[in-house]
Design a protein that fits this description.
six-stranded mixed sheet; 68 helices; about 1950 residues; globular
């Protein structure tokens, strides 16, 4: 059939053929609107069936250029001058300009920062702390920015777990190949190990028989415990038909019976009977079967034992089943147990212990024992050596191996006597390890330890069993090995530890293990995997191989084919890391993502530039946006657009000089354009006399890929070493030449002329401390300080040169310690730097600033003014200062004359840092004339990060060095530098093993003629500069006009090809999910259109959330997180790779999951939206502490005042101890700080009020508990002169405070020098955000502990010390009163006394959202407040705006979360997530309409429409009919739940779904429930009622409320109107109180004057959505109560009786039945070094929870584990003959929970599922009409239910009413409301605008009201009116 997939009312469609049925034919043209369209016209303000996202084909293909851009307005980051710029989305844009012109400020600090910040904002607060969220940029607006990924060289890789394989995700794909397609070979026998099944066991057994006609017997063993009589067990076996006992063997714990399963003659038996005999033996024998053969004497002999699984047929060794995790060194399942997957272990290095082998033992060969306290070990060594006859007077190198082992390992006769026996060096260090809690011991150990290959795994990182699996053929193995050089072949012949087969046998094995493949060069693997791809017929294997080949191709394309997959990421250069990340980005297959890339050409040969450009264009072709910062012409002009910044560097830059196409750039007038067009060329004169120059020769160089190399280096002029990446340039120069010339052991022989000195300028990073600056970096600051000191001496000022340093001395500002700024820590926001308030940013004290020195122009400047001068100005002003100006000259020569002398180093650009480092080397090497004259300057790619103009200056510096008589040697790819060289040495011809040779030496002209790779590129660059026509190819210019792909219908292959379809969609138009098999999905394939609203629906449990969250969301977020650093990935835990063939065209995803709980009692509107977090920051950093007693602001007090106060307070004490605070209310254990105090001699600390000794060991403190730690600095007599000691304590304290402790009484007092009341002298701690936290002890009210109310449970928790263990949820039966101490503010008096703008934080949060918005508009800030509060206030304004947009402006910020309605809580969460304003993301929402009234649902749909209009994709899991009809595309999954679901039943528009007979949702839409609006049980005037009088609570103001008894009543109204308050907090709570009152006792009514009609009710039950259990041991079967009956059934089975098992055996909560390894949990927790603990399925029980003996018992063929894994639907069929089990199962199915498994852990249930399980629990108790009259209160029971399940639930509730009970439901679902007998509508609005009854009566009567509910019901009932039937149909229906 043909299926049209339409987006909105657009004219285009995706058409494809399907072999399977189920998709409807397209609606005929002109087909009249269906019922849904009619429904749309009846409901006001709705847009059912309207397509709000995609209107026409042009909108799908892409918005107009004006709309499809990222807009940057008013960017002022760093030196940017209010830049306005539009960057086209989906394009390749290059940003260039002079070094320091503002490129990184624009691209990274503005564009990337905003895209990354907005996407990271969608993560949880916990995850955000690990994701290094970027700071908010200084810009007026950044609009339309997609989620951003940065690929730069700054991301240092610090973990050894990160390798090229993990960085590129190739390891993940290799894991899949080995987990599913590798072959196992026994490490002992070398033969294949098959997986034994009954079929393979039978085949092997037949081959082993001594004769074809042998009589055989299959048997199993049964273990009978001592407690069970043998007769009972044998009777049980006999009842099952097993009457022949072959043997009885007694053991200590019982008897083992060998039981015959079947016996027959081998040649006469049918195959089916033989197979059944094997299966029976395996089943009864717990997976083990025995084969007996009748011998000639007529006796049965045991021939073989078989076990299911993988067992070596020769040696019997068993192996576990392969899974991908078995081949990951980051998995606890496979990682080597010794090295934990690192491949290396840290241990004592004997080369460090004995560094000089020329020394003898007597001369101190053992270095740590030469002196000090360890000298005694040296004496032990000499004494024991003489006794043993070990020579102590000969050099270490001359000792025999045995003598060396004796010294290092100890005496072979060692028995533990340290005084008489020789313990050895290793035991000595092992003993030291036991003392490593001491700082000096750890320092000592660190000196003599190093990393070495792991002896357990040989560096393979994996367990030996994982390395026994091999992939590939023998032919492919031989081909790959032969393709490598001989020296590289050893890595591919890695023999795992524990392999004991002969070497010849190992070499004969086919393929490679995973470690061998990871040890091969990436480039060589391409052919291996391509060969496998060509030969495989397995589509799943081919899919993985395609990804592997593609990613290997990416690495090869960017010139990294020489790397190996196991190469550690930390050993890669910055350029290599960037290129690896670039290929990783391409491999993620993300779309709609902004990739920001920093100079991808770094480290690349010109040959490889086209490859990089190809990678970048592929990124863009995939639907992404690429913005590249670049200086290389081949990359610059390959982009579609180019932005040139300038005109100068630093303050002279920051402006956009050019913004246009790359072709237009060639005709531009900017400096960059002049170089690109060839109008300006970098050149220099050749050095004369090069032929006569002395030559330095390296011979026999062998290292890495260099093989016996000889190279001549002329020691004159400019020599350049060139060659492709990986050809051996850096190895030759940095690893061989430079070490050889500096005295280190060379790899080759140095001959010829040596230079007098060598200066090596490499790529090592320079310091980034803010105290570093250009003048100090080049060594000129010392000369300047000397001049200032001389002037001070002349004028009599008491200052020396050191006092003019801001890093030391008495001249620096004591407040900022010379930094010049005050750092305001903003916790989860970026820190703020402000000028120091004491020195005004000048860094020095006023007396130092009075010292001034004269300038050349007659001015006199102090040190601060001098540091503000530029280099050019300072060089001119102080030319007479000895040594100062010459050093600055080097800065000017490299083009840094515009920098100020004191500019902090972190503010420099990459190019500026590179040139500054060069200037420093020049200043150091040329400044001292006493040094040798002839020097060799060696530079490693010095042009990195440099613009053409900067390169020209650099060449000028080289020329100056050469003219001064020095030689310059550069490793370089830059063609301009190569063109300027006098001599070129080219390495090659390729990279890695293909390189390592000198392919050319000579001049650049000769190289061009030789046509080497470098010569060809240089010749092309020369022609391009000359304007030759070939420059089009050299520059790789983009096409003149970007081609638009025509619309095409994708081809559909047949099922025979192994996939249902190759592609569902056009490029960049939809997310394609192909072959999804996660959970219950059955090879599902679906399309989710981009920029549209797609709804996934279907019956509950059909697989909707699996598709949306486990596949689409998981893949989108996992791919984004894969671009982050390893630390972030380890902490955030990216989702696992789902079981799916492919997910294509997926953008980064954002999940808004369903949460029905409103939060604990400490949660408020402000905390839920994170407003409270930002307000806490504002008050901590800008607030003023007032004394709560005196109501005056605190002030600083002097040490004298503190000393006087101590005398007055402790005057009666003999002595007191002055304590310095170490930490205050801090959860981190502060171990390093305590160790530092221990090392300084402190012997005890006051920890949490108790003195603790640290003399021997630092205590381990609990991480989850806040601690206060003080250390003693002095013990003084308070009556004496203590001023000096007080001042000393204040100086030592970082808090400017101290504590005084009286040892006699234990009393203490806190003193602060910064914050003290001027009237009462009370001291206060420094303001901290924790002071305002409701979850921290430091600031909460001590009476209510942050709850704001007082109740018995809270008081009990405070008494037990458990107030902060958890956030309590309200108990409706518990009385709560407002806290009398804080009056509901939740904070203590000190926290409430902190004010900002005249009010405390509690007063600020008492306002409504609207009032807060108005106050923010009127807020006026000082310059300091604006600087500190900018980011925090921006976040506050943003969140306030979100709340207003979703209609919650009436809420107060301190409104407690439990008092919110479900709709209010849902809208708060949606506002927080939907307000990020991203572009191009995929938002995935899980039932967002939960708790929303139809009126509120309109706001949600509008918000989602706005997101889609911004260019986002929305995927919504939803049952709500209104949302479904609003969708552009609907995906219906079904037809049932659990195993009966997971199929794609329909996909298309609402109209198409409705017309599909196979769609459950379609049928519900086409034939929905009909309603008359009258109710089944009319409410008459005499119907008994519950009557509530004068209800007053929260916003309720009701004089009278009537609830008819024996009826179904729906309580409805807009969100926040008071429904839950009325039903749960007033009615249910008071009714419960009244029912429990003693006879004759008047109930204590709460919030009402009383309830009439209570006597007619016997029970009141609230069925809410709180969890049914907090432990994973709780499940539906145990909660509802039918699990006991199931256990009884199993206990009565013959299997159980023969084993003596009772019902207690079949619970996983008791040890006798539970799996011993996982204790019945089904999983085990594994601790991972440096990684979070992980939970893995238990390998013993495989998640079944029970031990093998228990699982051997079967009832009706199923084990107890099988039963717990059954869905309710399956279990109902299985237990249909057991009413005690079937009845509750039927109820579970009736309420729509048929998809749940019986053993599903309770914590994994949603709120709606938990609520319905509670309802079933109550319904299961009802037995006919004898049940007492019960009032059921249900809070939105339709949550999570499909439309068909809602109908079932309505029937269940009607059944309750018919049984005489009363049901009150709080509900928004119109089906439920329309089915009610009586409806009460609250409103008219939410919050203060609600709380009144605006309508009540039947649904039909309410529909005539002009309320929000009434209008919705009117349209709904009109649409759902029952169809009129003819008399004939009515008669037939009646007869039926």
């Amino acid at each position: 059939m043909q299926k049209f997939f339409r987006l909105g009312k657009s004219a285009w469609a995706i058409s494809y053929n399907c072999l399977h049925t189920g998709f409807p034919a397209p609606l005929p043209a002109g087909d009249p609107a269906s019922a849904s369209a009619e429904f749309a016209t009846l409901i006001p303000h709705r847009r059912f069936s309207q397509r709000t996202i995609v209107k026409n084909e042009e909108a799908v293909r892409g918005a107009t250029p004006d709309e499809n851009v990222i807009r940057i307005r008013g960017a002022r980051q760093n030196n940017l001058k209010s830049v306005d710029l539009d960057i086209p989305v989906g394009s390749f844009t290059v940003v260039t300009g002079l070094s320091g012109s503002g490129k990184s400020s624009l691209v990274f600090d503005t564009l990337y920062a905003e895209g990354q910040r907005r996407y990271v904002e969608t993560f949880s607060p916990y995850a955000r702390q690990f994701l290094d969220r970027m700071n908010r940029p200084k810009a007026d607006a950044v609009e339309g920015v997609p989620p951003a990924i940065a690929i730069d060289q700054e991301g240092a890789i610090r973990t050894s777990r990160s390798t090229v394989g993990t960085m590129t995700e190739l390891n993940d794909h290799l894991k899949l190949l080995f987990g599913h397609h590798a072959q196992l070979f026994c490490p002992h026998c070398g033969i294949p190990v098959p997986e034994h099944t009954p079929e393979t066991i039978l085949q092997d057994a037949m081959a082993r028989l001594p004769a074809p006609d042998a009589r055989i017997q299959w048997a199993f063993e049964l273990r009978v415990p001592k407690t069970l009589p043998i007769e009972t067990a044998e009777n049980g076996l006999s009842a099952q038909g097993f009457t022949r006992i072959i043997a009885r063997r007694k053991t200590k714990v019982g008897t083992i019976l060998t039981v015959s399963a079947d016996r027959f003659r081998a040649d006469a038996v049918e195959v089916s009977r033989a197979r059944q005999a094997v299966s029976t033996a395996l089943e009864k024998g717990s997976g083990e079967a025995l084969l007996f053969v009748r011998n000639d004497e007529g006796e049965d002999e045991l021939l073989a034992r078989y076990r299911e699984g993988r067992v070596c047929p020769t040696c019997g060794r068993t192996f576990s089943a392969p899974t991908p995790n078995k081949f990951s060194f980051n998995s606890p399942v496979a990682a080597c147990t010794l090295c934990r997957g690192f491949g290396r272990v840290i241990q004592t290095d004997m080369k460090l212990v004995i560094p000089d082998e020329s020394l003898s033992l007597a001369a101190g060969a053992v270095r740590p024992w030469r002196s000090g306290t360890q000298r005694v070990c040296q004496e032990d060594l000499i004494r024991c050596a003489k006794n043993e006859g070990i020579r102590t007077d000969v050099p270490w190198r001359d000792l025999t191996d045995w003598e060396r082992r004796w010294v290092t390992d100890g005496s072979p006769l060692w028995k533990g006597d340290w005084k008489r026996e020789w313990y050895g060096i290793r035991r000595y260090f092992e003993w030291l390890e036991t003392k490593n809690y001491k700082m000096h011991v750890r320092v000592l150990l660190a000196r003599y330890r190093s990393y070495d290959g792991c002896p357990a795994c040989g560096g393979a990182r994996l367990l030996p069993e994982s390395l026994a699996w091999r992939y590939g053929t023998k032919e492919a193995r031989e081909t790959l090995i032969k393709s490598l050089p001989e020296a590289s072949r050893g890595a591919l012949r890695f023999v795992p530890q524990g392999t004991d087969m002969p070497a010849e046998a190992y070499d004969a094995l086919p393929g490679f293990n995973i470690h061998e493949l990871m040890s091969a060069p990436v480039g060589s693997l391409r052919g291996f995997f391509e060969g496998r791809l060509a030969n495989t017929r397995d589509e799943s294997e081919a899919m993985v191989l395609r990804e592997v080949v593609a990613r290997i191709g990416f690495l090869t394309d960017v010139g990294l084919g020489y790397l190996t997959l196991d190469r550690q990421g930390r050993t890669l250069s910055g350029g290599e890391v960037e290129r690896v990340n670039l290929t990783t980005a391409l491999g993620t297959n993300l779309v709609n993502t902004l990739f920001v890339i920093d100079e991808p050409s770094i480290g690349l040969h010109p040959r490889d530039m086209d490859r990089v450009n190809g990678v970048l264009r592929r990124l863009v072709a995939a639907g992404n946006t690429a913005v590249v910062v670049e200086h290389d012409p081949q990359v610059m002009l390959a982009g579609e657009r180019i932005v040139d910044l300038g005109p100068g560097p630093g303050a002279a830059g920051g402006r956009v000089l050019f913004n246009g196409t790359t072709r237009e750039m060639l005709a531009g007038t900017t400096l960059t354009a002049e170089y690109l067009s060839g109008r300006r060329i970098i050149s220099r004169e050749r050095t004369p006399g090069l032929d006569e120059a002395p030559v330095l020769t390296l011979e026999h160089v062998t290292m890495h890929n260099l093989r016996d190399l000889r190279v001549d280096f002329p020691l004159k002029g400019l020599t350049a070493v060139a060659g492709v990446s990986g050809s051996g340039k850096s190895t030759l120069i940095a690893d061989v030449l430079v070490p050889a010339l500096t005295g280190e052991a060379p790899s080759g022989v140095v001959t010829g002329t040596r230079p007098d000195d060598v200066i090596f300028v490499d790529q090592s990073p320079m310091g980034r401390t803010a105290r570093g600056n250009p003048v100090s970096y080049v060594g000129a600051y010392g000369d300047l300080r000397d001049a200032l000191a001389a002037e001070a001496e002349r004028t009599g000022a008491p200052f020396k040169a050191v006092d003019f340093s801001f890093n030391a001395g008495k001249g620096r500002c004591p407040h900022c310690l010379g930094s010049g700024y005050e750092q305001i820590e903003m916790q989860f926001l970026s820190d703020v730097l402000l000028p120091c308030p004491e020195c005004g940013g000048k860094r020095f004290i006023p007396e130092v600033l009075n010292v001034r020195i004269p300038t050349a122009d007659g001015r006199r400047l102090n040190i601060a003014e001098i540091l503000d001068l530029t280099v050019d100005e300072a060089a001119e002003a102080f030319a007479d200062i000895k040594g100062f100006a010459p050093k600055l000259t080097h800065l000017r020569e490299v083009g840094l004359g515009y920098l100020t002398l004191g500019q902090p180093l972190p503010t420099l650009s990459g190019g500026e840092r590179q040139r500054l480092k060069l200037a420093a080397h020049l200043a150091e090497s040329l400044g001292n004339r006493r040094r040798p004259k002839t020097k060799l300057f060696v530079f490693d790619e010095p042009t990195t990060g440099l613009h053409f103009a900067d390169v020209e200056r650099l060449v000028g510096v080289f020329d100056k060095l050469i003219k001064a008589g020095h030689a310059v040697l550069v490793i370089e790819h830059n063609l301009d530098v190569l063109d300027c060289a006098d001599h070129v040495i080219e390495m090659g011809p390729g990279g890695g093993d293909e390189g390592g040779q000198v392919v050319f030496t000579g001049t650049p002209d000769q190289m061009c003629d030789a046509a080497t790779l470098t010569g060809t590129a240089l010749a092309a660059w020369r022609r391009a500069r000359a304007g030759d026509a070939t420059r089009e190819s050299f520059f790789n210019l983009p096409p003149l006009e970007k081609k638009r792909e025509p619309f095409r219908v994708p081809a559909i292959p047949t099922r025979a090809m192994g996939r249902s379809m190759q592609s569902l969609l056009l490029e960049k138009r939809a997310i394609a999910v192909e072959g999804a098999r996660e959970h219950n999905l059955k090879n599902l394939t679906a399309a989710i259109p981009h920029n549209a609203l797609t709804v996934v629906t279907g019956p509950s449990g059909s697989g909707k959330s699996t598709l949306a969250f486990n596949i689409v969301f998981a893949e989108g977020q996992r791919r984004y997180l894969s671009s982050l650093n390893a630390y972030a990935r380890s902490m955030v835990q990216p989702p696992p790779v789902p079981d799916v063939d492919a997910v294509r065209e997926i953008p980064p995803t954002v999940a808004i999951e369903q949460r029905t709980s409103r939060g604990g009692m400490r949660s408020t509107v402000a905390t839920m939206t994170e407003l409270h977090h930002f307000l806490r920051l504002i008050y901590a950093k800008l607030g003023t502490q007032y004394c709560p007693d005196c109501n005056v602001p605190v002030e600083a007090q002097s040490p004298q005042a503190i000393a006087q106060s101590i005398r007055e307070t402790f005057g009666d004490a003999a002595s007191v101890r002055l304590l310095v605070p170490l930490v205050r209310h801090q959860k981190a254990p502060a171990r390093k700080e305590m160790e530092a105090l221990q090392a300084s001699g402190i012997k005890e600390l006051l920890i949490d009020g108790e003195w603790v000794s640290i003399e021997k060991k630092v205590p381990a403190l609990k991480r989850a508990v806040e601690h206060n730690i003080d250390w003693p600095i002095a013990e003084v007599d308070p009556k004496g002169d203590i001023h000096g000691k007080v001042e000393e304590a204040l100086v030592a304290s970082r808090f400017q405070s101290l504590t005084v402790w009286d040892p006699a009484t234990g009393r203490s007092h806190y003193y602060s020098a910064a914050n003290a009341c001027p009237e009462c002298a009370r001291s206060f701690p420094e303001l901290d955000p924790r002071l305002f936290s409701y979850n921290a002890n430091v600031g909460v009210c001590p009476t209510c502990m942050g709850y704001g109310v007082v109740a018995k449970s809270i008081r009990d928790a405070i008494k037990k010390g458990e107030a902060f263990d958890r956030d309590m949820t309200p108990d409706p039966d518990e009385e709560r009163t407002v806290c009398p101490d804080c009056n509901g503010a939740r904070l203590n008096a000190v926290a409430r006394a902190v004010r900002w703008k005249g009010e405390g934080i509690h007063e600020c949060e008492a306002r409504t959202v609207d009032e807060t918005a108005e106050r923010l508009k009127a807020l006026r800030l000082t310059e300091r407040e604006e600087a500190i509060g900018r980011d925090a206030l921006a976040e506050i304004r943003s969140r306030i705006g979100f709340l207003q947009r979703v209609g919650l402006g009436y809420l107060t910020l301190d409104r407690s979360a439990p008092t919110l309605s479900g709709g209010e809580a849902q809208r708060i969460r949606l506002a927080s997530q939907l307000g990020t304003a991203l572009r191009g993301a995929c938002y995935i929402l899980d039932e967002p309409t939960i708790g929303l009234h139809p009126r509120d649902n309109a706001m949600l749909l509008d918000a989602m429409g706005e997101l889609a209009r911004l260019g986002n994709t929305l995927l919504v899991v939803e049952h709500d009919e209104e949302t479904i009809r609003h969708a552009d595309c609907v995906i219906d999954i079904g037809p049932g739940a659990g195993v009966r679901g997971g199929e794609l039943r329909a996909m298309g528009t609402v109209e198409e779904i409705s017309a599909n007979p196979d769609s459950v949702t379609g049928r519900a839409l086409a034939e929905p429930l009909t309603h008359t609006g009258e109710g089944r049980h009319p409410v008459e005037a005499d119907t008994p009622k519950l009557v509530l009088r004068n209800v007053r609570m929260h916003n309720l103001a009701l004089d009278k409320v009537e609830i008819p008894l024996g009826r179904l009543t729906a309580l409805t109204g807009v969100s926040g109107s008071g429904k839950s308050t009325l039903a749960r907090e007033v009615l249910f709570r008071n009714l419960t109180e009244a029912l429990h009152a003693k006879p004759g006792q008047t109930p204590a009514w709460s919030h009402t004057d009383g309830i009439e009609g209570v006597e007619k009710i016997r029970r009141a039950l609230e069925v809410d959505q709180t969890p049914i259990g907090k432990t994973r041991r709780s499940c539906p079967a145990t909660y509802v109560g039918f699990y006991q009956a199931i256990r009884d059934l199993f206990a009565q089975s013959p299997d159980a009786q023969e084993r003596g098992f009772g019902p207690g055996r079949f619970t996983f909560n008791r040890t006798e039945g539970a799996c011993p390894d996982c204790a019945g949990m089904g999983f085990r927790t594994v601790e991972m070094a440096f990684l979070p603990d992980v939970q893995v399925p238990c390998e013993t029980c495989r998640g079944a929870r029970f031990n093998p003996e228990t699982l051997a018992v079967r009832w009706k063929g199923k084990t107890i584990g099988d039963v717990l894994n059954m869905s309710v639907d399956d279990a109902l069929v299985f237990f249909e003959s057991m009413p005690t089990v079937a009845r509750p199962l039927q109820l579970l199915q009736d309420v729509g929970l048929g998809y749940l498994t019986l053993g599903q852990p309770s914590p994994t249930l949603s709120g709606g599922e938990a609520q319905r399980i509670k309802l079933v629990y109550e319904l299961s108790k009802i037995r006919g009409a004898s049940s007492p009259h019960t009032l059921y209160v249900l809070d939105e029971p339709t949550v999570g239910l499909h439309m068909t399940d809602v109908a079932k639930l309505i029937e269940v509730l009607e059944r309750l009413v018919e049984a005489g009970h009363t049901v009150l439901v709080i509900e928004h679902d119109l089906d439920m409301v329309a089915s009610a007998d009586h409806v009460i509508d609250l409103g008219p609005e939410g919050g203060a605008g609600g709380g009144r009854i605006v309508g009540e009566g039947t649904p039909k009567a309410l529909s005539k009201k002009a309320t929000h509910t009434g209008r919705a019901l009117k349209a709904f009932l009109a649409h759902r009116k029952p169809k009129k039937t003819s008399a004939k149909d009515a008669k037939a229906s009646k007869a039926k």
